[in-house]
Every structure is written in structure tokens, then in C-alpha cells.
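Look over both lines before class:
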Amino acid sequence: MDIKVLEKGKNKLKFELTGKSHTLANLLSKELWNDKNVTVAGYTIPHPETTSAILVVETKSGDPKKAVSSAISRIKKKNKSFLTQAKKLK
């Protein structure tokens, strides 16, 4: 997976996830909404036959790149917790 920055501003970040579609983009955009400084978090798939998602993140304050990084960290933590709980089911 490649990440291509399409637009970067003080409070806005638009980037493309090459080779990824709804699964990762939806997870990331939903987690971004848990950040109180995020005002916009969403994605689009430019064409149904492509495997790339374009995400847009805007913040009230703070760097949107940091918001994305924090969201990824929270997702990793939740995933680790889920895996621990799943292993107990065996």
C-alpha cells in the first residue's frame, strides 16, 4: 500500500491509499470521528473498478497528520485487545 498526499494545509489533509478500498478507509474515517478536534473525516472511491481510496481529514486545531497517526494508534490498540479476547475463546 502506498500513501500519496494530494493536498496538505494547516488544518486539512487529503491523501490517497493506493491498493486499499472501503475496508481500511472506512475504519480509519470512523476512528477519526472519535477525535474532538476532527471536523471532517471521510473518504471516496473515485471509480468502482479502482482499488484506491481518497481520504479527507480536517481539524479545528492541530495537525491533521497527527490526528491520522493517533487514530491509527487507537485502531492498533483496539485490534490488539480484540486479538487477546479472541484467543481466550479457544
Notes: The beta strands are 2-8, 12-18, 38-44, 52-59. The mean pLDDT is 93.
